Amino acid sequence: MNSRFLDLALRLPDEFRALEPALRELLTRTFKRGKIELRLNPDRAPDAAAALPQPEQLVRLAALQVAVRSQLRDAELMSVHEVLQWCRSTAPVAVLDEAALAAARVCVERLGEARAREGDRLVAILMERVEHLRGLAAQAAPLVPQVVARQQQRFLERWNEALATAGANQSVSAQSLTERAMSEAAAFAIRIDVAEELGRLGAHLDEITRLLRKGGELGKRLDFLIQELHREANTLGSKSAALELTQISVEMKVAIEQMREQVQNIE
């Protein structure tokens, strides 16, 4: 697959150009995403019953040869090989077209079966990555209160330093102390607020699981959810003031990138 949209490339001999609309309709009805190349190489070897001339063709050829020799008395008769070639080239177009379409249908059916098997394998891989991410989120959740406690302690230490400075320097007003306290509190809240990210990440994982179990055309929806997972993991890492959470964020991004690569192959 490796393509967000359906990209068709048809390689047809000139005598089969009229089949292109029908072949495109067959492919677009079956596939919705991916890069697909269909190449038609007719077997021109004279073999078996398919190469045997039909009686009406021989009658027509005999009449043509009589007409030619009436104008060109030195013209040579056609060889058996030349007769067979001529008969194949003048075979009914509808017969050749139907044979080509039938072969294309077989190819599409077999490709669909192969993709179904590959899809089952990809679903198993993605489910395993989803569970891995759930495990990482479960590791991160109990760390959040610990991070909060450490940040609270640091905040109190900075606040006490500010009070000590105010006591030594009477020029520092109560308003300045209040502004600093508000600034510290805002920074504190921003730095420790990772519970929301973990909650949204869990919701995205639930939706991915639901889609994978449901089946159908999932590719574009999964693309979006993978982007959302990456955004939450990035935010978790940028907000974290704890090394443990930062390491978990990195592991999450690695797993999400692995999922993104696999999702490119899902319709």
Task: Summarize this structure as a short list of keywords or feature phrases.
267 residues, mainly alpha, 2 domains, two-stranded parallel ribbon, 9 helices, 2 strands, rod-shaped
Reading the helices and strands in chain order gives: EHEHHHHHHHH
Which strand-content bin applies to the residues? under 5%
Helix content: over 70%
Radius of gyration: 36 Å
Number of helices: 9
Structural class of the helices, strands and pairings? mainly alpha
Can you tell me the overall shape?
rod-shaped
Mean pLDDT: 80
Give the number of domains. Answer: 2
**Using DSSP, what is the number of strands?**
2
Strand order of the largest sheet: 1-2
Q: First CA to last CA: what distance?
A: 8 Å
Query: Which spans have pLDDT < 50 for at least 5 consecutive residues?
Result: none
Biggest sheet record: 2 strands, parallel
Brief characterization of the structure:
The protein contains nine helices and two strands; from the N terminus they run βαβαααααααα. The chain is mainly α and 267 residues long. The termini are close together.
Describe this protein's structure.
The chain has helices spanning 20-30, 55-71, 80-89, 93-140, 143-168, 174-192, 195-214, 219-239, 243-263, and strands spanning 6-11, 34-39. With 267 residues, it is mostly helical. The chain has 2 domains: 49-89, no CATH class; 118-263, no CATH class. A two-stranded parallel ribbon has the order 1-2. β1, α1 and β2 form a beta-alpha-beta unit. The radius of gyration is 36 Å and the shape is rod-shaped. The model has no long low-confidence stretch (mean pLDDT 80).
